[in-house]
Specification:
The complex is a heterodimer of chains A (413) and B (439). With 413 residues, chain A is of the alpha/beta class. Chain A contains 19 helices and 13 strands. Chain A folds into two domains: 277 residues, Rossmann fold, CATH 3.40.50; 88 residues, formyl-coa transferase, domain 3 (2-Layer Sandwich).
Chain lengths: 413, 439
């Protein structure tokens, strides 16, 4: 039994932020019905692809973002398409959407309309800047939203341009926030007997970054100081250092520095006045001095030796892994984190595993592969909406929906 | 202050959660649960100071205070004050709406109080080094016997079980294990310039709050307690899914991408007029690119063969960046953003905290919460993570001062007598200041 295995979600999202949210909720057992436009979620055109050959069923981004969902192709611009979605909403608990603000109303699927067919429905709207405000219609990407909301100004070297985070990480944080919003909204709806409209703004979620933005927002108000990319603040003996076979990340700071001093075999330092007391170790001159000592030691050891030494001496530190290292990391392996999922078009691939583990009985089954375009169109309309084959055929013929057959024909032509 | 009616209307009203969290990831999880109405009781010890939770040290030297200031973790007016632990900016942000009690879990009578708390609560969240949590008696085996409806959520760095269970880390190390810093480092500098940041902690905070919320639902459905484990490193790897899939598909390893996108260019932060002023620009289509060229007054760039289509622009992105930088240097970052957005192009200023606090969009949306704190004064705090149309959003209560809610927890909640309460003060469980032996 999973926490949301009695919950149905109508998923109107596309690309990355929204699908991350519903992928997470699918992991918790929700029946996520992914409404795709004819031609499919544009994420199907995002790489990576096997051998770099684009194919709508082989997009790495899409495959990872849509596990355990069902794909239904509906043309929302057609009144009958809208009515199909309203029928699903009537039989669902949550709707998640990530259209540009105003689009849902324009499609005849605004919150008031959804609430009219299902007063208990929770609508989670994900957007760049929220459903209101002067920037409502501004464009945004992971880069520009992280720049505005997130702590980008404090990321990187003081003499260089600020750095973003990797890949689509900012958007995924927004998606994760939307999943949380949906779960809390569901809790509220179940208590109150009626749903509500949740407004998730990427700009605002990223301004929430606990990784320095929250502290600095108050810190600036405390002392009027803007610190930019002035350093990590983690103190002496902290940073990224080269070693024999790569790089390691070590964090010491004046209070914990004796542990690092012992790890590198320089106990003699602790007898010297510059290093003996906390006050002395806090002096800014100690930072470059200790970096030289630490570097001499790291350069003579491997990543794995340094990881083991850190563990032994209680020092905060370890290797800087590449993606390839993840696949051989013994902790991920011992915990069985990664999942191999087969797919008829993309083949068996390694995916990141579950983000949280519940002690459910029976244990949580592995994820199901991402759906083929339109794979569940007939199944969902027949089983969830109880529609007769003749009516389904009529909708197919009119181009309101696409089943696997139409999709195959479309791809072939 | 929120009214009682507003508090009752919160989605998680009536849920009581014990909070044994430290540093950032755990406290950020309980921040959201507190924002949406759960009663969060921080259990803190007067005899132990977890660094980076309520500041670096309980009693930092002025030198350390000055160091903290230059990294954005400074104290009001650069003075630690009599109670530095009540004046730390990160704590005072994520601590809002929470309660603080003091209790020494390393002593038998502390464990007796702890058991009573477990009986009176719905669950607990902790993110300590797994062996440390277990030394304090925090195990699923024990707590589920004390309270069969209890929810225990543990947020270790690498796992409650596994080879790295006793491996000490901060978020930046978990992120390094997850493979992030190598990807985001500068393309043209050594990996020793890889930034030290911890989006993995923010991810664990949101993921932790989500997992706990769903554990509550699971408990309502089954009538039984729930044990949840969320390891920060595992929680973060899915944020890098494309990289994992590309390695799985093609054996490709991406390193040192800096601000580059896999395929899109231009896609970078560009210098503008003034000190440390930057604008980010992402042209995701041919229309975007032509609009940028037009605004730059360089329509010819759009037909330059180096930049004629997306693959060419991406291949020649350093030349492209040089052309754009030469133009942005002459302009104000906000002007560039406004003009490009008017043309439908994604652009954004790399905002300093001071600008974010004055941002007109956030102001229009009423994003900031004004919170008065007895030891730091009045400040603006971030809003809730999202808005909910039918839930009241009163301003939050200030982050708790150490031991601020001892009276409520010991007397009101657990029913200890005046005499017992005094005994807990004398034995060093109850108080509002760290023991003199704590540095």
């Amino acid at each position: 039994m999973l926490p949301m295995d009695d919950v149905r979600i109508v998923d109107l999202t596309q690309y990355a932020m929204g699908p991350f949210a519903t992928r997470v909720l699918a992991d918790y057992g929700a029946d996520v019905i992914k409404i795709e436009r004819p031609g499919g979620d544009p994420a199907r055109r995002l790489g990576p692809f096997p051998k770099d050959v684009p194919h709508i069923e082989r997009s790495g981004a899409f495959l990872a973002l849509n596990t355990s969902k069902r794909s239904v192709v509906v043309d929302l611009k057609r009144p009958e398409g809208r009515d199909l979605v309203l029928g699903l909403v009537e039989r669902a608990e949550i709707v998640v959407e990530s259209f540009a603000p105003g689009t849902l109303d324009h499609l005849g699927l605004g919150y008031d309309r959804l609430r009219a067919v299902n007063p208990r429905i929770v609508l989670t709207s994900i957007s760049n800047f929220g459903q209101t405000g002067p920037y409502r219609d501004w464009k945004g990407t992971d880069l520009t939203l992280y720049a505005m909301g997130g702590p980008m100004i404090s990321q990187g070297d003081p003499s260089r341009e600020p750095l973003k985070t990797g890949g689509r990480a900012p958007g995924y944080q927004v998606g994760y926030a939307a999943a949380l919003a949906s779960a809390v909204g569901l809790t509220a709806a179940e208590r109150r007997g009626h749903g509500e409209h949740l407004d998730v703004s990427a700009f605002e979620v990223l301004a929430h970054s606990i990784d320095s933005r929250l502290g600095r927002l108050l810190g600036y108000q405390y002392n009027g100081r803007l610190v930019g990319r002035a350093g990590s603040g983690l103190g002496v003996g902290s940073g990224t250092y080269p070693c024999l076979d790569g790089f390691v990340l070590i964090t010491s700071g004046a209070p914990r520095l004796p542990l690092t001093i012992r790890m590198i075999g320089r106990e003699d330092l602790l007898d010297q006045p510059e290093w003996a007391t906390l006050e002395a170790r806090s002096h800014p001159d100690r930072v470059p001095e200790f970096d030289a000592y630490l570097l001499m030691w790291t350069l003579e050891h491997t990543k794995e030796e340094i990881r083991a030494a850190c563990q032994q001496y209680g020092v905060l530190g370890g290797p800087l892994n590449t993606t390839a290292d993840l696949f051989v990391d013994r902790n991920f392996a011992a915990r069985g984190f990664f999942q191999t999922i087969d797919h008829p078009e993309a083949g068996p691939l390694t995916y990141p595993g579950f983000q949280a583990r519940f002690n459910t009985e029976p244990p949580q089954p592995p994820r199901k592969r991402a759906p083929l375009l339109g794979e569940h169109t007939v199944e969902v309309i027949r089983d969830v909406l109880d529609m007769q084959p003749a009516d389904i055929d009529r909708l197919r013929g009119a181009g309101v929906i696409q089943t696997r057959e139409e999709v195959r024909d479309a791809v072939a032509s | 202050m929120p009214s009682p009616a507003d508090e009752r209307d919160q989605p998680l009203a009536g849920v009581r959660i014990l909070d044994l969290t430290v540093v950032w990831a755990g406290p950020y999880a309980t921040m959201h649960l507190a924002d949406w109405g759960a009663e969060i009781i921080r259990i803190e010890s007067l005899h132990h100071f977890a660094s980076f939770t309520r500041g670096t040290l309980a009693r930092p030297s002025q030198a350390l205070v000055d160091t903290s200031s230059t990294s954005g973790m400074g104290y009001p007016e650069d003075r630690a004050g009599e109670h530095p632990w009540n004046r730390s900016p990160v704590f005072n942000h994520h601590g809002r709406n929470k309660r603080s009690m003091t209790l020494d879990l390393t002593r038998p009578e502390g464990q007796e109080v702890f058991e009573r708390l477990v009986r009176e609560s719905d669950g607990m969240i902790e993110n300590n080094l797994p062996p440390h949590a277990e030394e304090l008696g925090v195990t699923w085996d024990r707590l589920s016997k004390i309270n069969p409806r209890f929810i225990l959520m543990r947020v270790p760095g690498f796992g409650v079980e596994g080879p790295y269970r006793d491996y000490r880390t901060f978020g930046n190390h978990m992120e390094a294990i997850a493979g992030h810093p190598v990807i985001r480092a500068y393309p043209d500098l050594g990996l020793d310039y890889a930034p030290a940041s911890v989006p993995a902690d923010a991810a664990s905070g949101v993921g932790g709050a989500l997992a706990f919320t769903l554990a509550l639902r699971q408990r309502e459905r089954t009538g039984k307690g729930v044990y949840v484990e969320l390891a920060t490193a595992e929680n973060y790897v899915p944020f890098l899914s494309e990289f994992v899939l590309d390695y799985s598909m093609n054996g490709r390893v991406w390193e040192q991408m800096g601000n580059d996108h896999w395929t899109v260019a231009p896609h970078n932060a560009y210098p503008c007029q003034g000190m440390d002023r930057w604008v980010t620009i992402a042209c995701t289509s041919e229309d975007d690119w032509r609009a940028l060229c037009g605004l730059m007054g360089r329509p010819g760039l759009a037909t330059d063969e180096r930049f004629a289509d997306m693959p060419s622009r991406h291949a020649n992105r350093r030349d492209l960046d040089a052309e754009i930088s030469a133009w942005t240097r002459e302009h104000d970052a906000h002007w560039v953003t406004q003009r490009l957005q008017a043309l439908g192009v994604a652009a954004g200023v790399v905002l300093h905290e001071s600008e974010l606090l004055r941002d007109r969009h956030l102001d229009h949306r009423g994003y900031w919460q004004t919170i008065e704190h007895p030891e730091t004064g009045v400040q603006q705090n971030v809003g809730r993570l999202w808005r909910a149309s039918d839930t009241p959003h009163p301003p939050a209560r200030h982050a708790p001062m150490l031991g601020q809610d001892n009276d409520y927890v010991y007397r009101e909640l657990l029913g200890f007598s005046d005499e017992e309460y005094r005994a807990f003060i004398e034995s060093g469980h109850i108080g509002t200041e760290y023991d003199a032996s704590v540095p």
